[in-house]
Specification:
2 domains; 16 helices; single chain; 9-stranded mixed β-sheet
Length: about 450
């Protein structure tokens, strides 16, 4: 009898997992979304596909759909995974998702183990592919008797070089709000064997240039890297940082947007105004002098590339518009969504690199592991592929009985990462590794 998989969410990253499971298994898939048309479009009349309209707040329907499945994939916003997990525990079903393990999700570990269930989290791109590719190298070094002294891991979803056509060096295929909110996070990492903390205010000031395969990027610390000392088994490590990767110049623009109070929840009232008027009101500028006063506040010339980029975004536009009530952050997110979208047929790119320094009894090594993956013009984005194909492979491995772990897990165990990385390689998602002996 065919296994039954419930996929919650038919958003921007869902298509590759649906296509993979239809192609490589005989599973029945039920795709549920708050807008059923999204689910209908995603399954595209496949004979093993079913669609459902689901608001996750509808506990009866969610419970019924979970009970009918053998495994549940949650592609919902991370705050809703806990609701889904409770239904999975009640109905005794496995669950996978691509989000960081929350404290709420951790609290389900004992009951999941008791019921012989696997709740596999962080099995997307970042987190996900980054964990698996890193652990492969860490375990290899340790097996050869070595010690990891330094580890830097950076990842970014970016426009492919030929699609990098705006002054921000960035484009959105989804809502920009999450990216902007992440700019308000603090961060911590390990340097010189000690924990270094960076406040949200100083996050982009901690950006460092990075050259990868001849391309100019920059990276800044991503949240709390220090937890990975324990997660990855890196006792005694001297430097450990996970970072966000962007094209060179991004941090200057983010620092400017922060300084101009655009990454805040400051209210913008409804009414007739202009983008320049909004910027002026947020900063106490004379509306007629917004451009020059912006340059003065940022302590840069009016001819600076940052000012030109803000002008390109439209922040100095004086055309009067009817604005709905909003916040500074939401206003900026909507403006970016309009100006920084991918054009039809443009490719996105995922860039991920690990850099290790390891010491052995008789030598030292520098090890790099690099992934560049590109979207398919008029097809799936690289972001969708790299987030949802690891999920798809994990679903098949779990239902085929190849992964027998239980409880709340992330993919740092060989039994998960070896077969997932091997299958990703067959799908064209492959790392190139280089080792330099010192």
């Amino acid at each position: 009898m065919s296994k039954h998989v419930l996929i919650l969410g038919a958003g921007l990253v869902s298509q590759p997992i649906i296509d993979y499971l239809f192609k490589n298994t005989n599973y029945i898939l039920t795709v549920a979304d708050i807008i059923e048309e999204n689910a209908i479009k995603a399954i595209a009349d496949h004979p093993r596909g079913k669609s459902a309209a689901l608001d996750v707040k509808n506990a009866d329907l969610l419970g019924q759909l979970v009970a009918e499945a053998d495994l549940v994939v949650s592609l919902l916003p991370y705050a809703l995974h806990g609701t889904v997990a409770k239904h999975c525990l009640q109905a005794e079903k496995h669950m996978v998702n691509a989000s960081y393990v929350s404290d709420e999700m951790k609290s389900f570990d004992a009951e999941a183990q008791e019921k012989n269930l696997l709740f596999l989290c962080e099995i997307g791109l970042d987190p996900g592919i980054d964990h698996m590719s890193a652990m492969k190298i860490i375990h290899d070094v340790q097996q050869r008797g070595g010690h990891i002294d330094e580890f830097i891991s950076v990842c970014g979803g970016l426009p492919a070089p030929e699609a990098n056509t705006n002054p921000f060096g960035y484009k959105f295929s989804w809502s920009p709000k999450g990216v902007l909110l992440a700019g308000n996070n603090s961060a911590s990492y390990i340097a010189g064997g000690s924990i270094k903390k960076i406040s949200a205010k100083d996050l982009f000031s901690a950006t460092e240039p990075m050259k990868i395969d001849g391309q100019n990027f920059e990276a800044y610390p991503n949240r709390d890297s220090t937890a990975y000392k324990q997660i990855y088994g890196l006792e005694g490590i001297q430097f450990l940082m996970r970072g966000t990767l962007r094209y060179a110049g991004w941090h200057k623009l983010m620092l400017a947007l922060k300084a101009l109070n655009l990454l805040t929840e400051t209210a913008i009232p409804a009414g007739k105004t202009s983008y320049a008027g909004i910027l002026a009101n947020l900063n106490g500028f004379d509306q007629a002098e917004t451009r020059s006063e912006t340059a003065a506040k940022l302590k840069i010339s009016e001819n600076d590339e940052v000012i030109k980029a803000l002008e390109w975004l439209g922040l100095f536009d004086v055309n009067i518009l009817e604005m709905m009530s909003t916040t500074a952050l939401d206003f900026l997110a909507e403006l970016m969504k309009t100006k920084m979208a991918y054009a039809s047929g443009e490719r996105d790119m995922v860039a991920l690199q690990h850099r290790f320094k390891a010491s052995f009894s008789d030598h030292k090594e520098e090890i790099t592991s690099t992934l560049f993956d590109y979207g398919i013009p008029h097809g799936n984005t690289s972001m969708a592929r790299t987030v949802s194909l690891p999920l798809a492979i994990a679903v098949k491995l779990i239902l085929d009985g190849k992964i027998k772990l239980t409880g709340v897990q992330i993919p740092v165990d060989r039994v998960i990462y070896e077969p997932v990385l091997a299958e990703l390689k067959t799908l064209g998602i492959e790392f190139s590794e280089a080792v330099k002996k010192l």
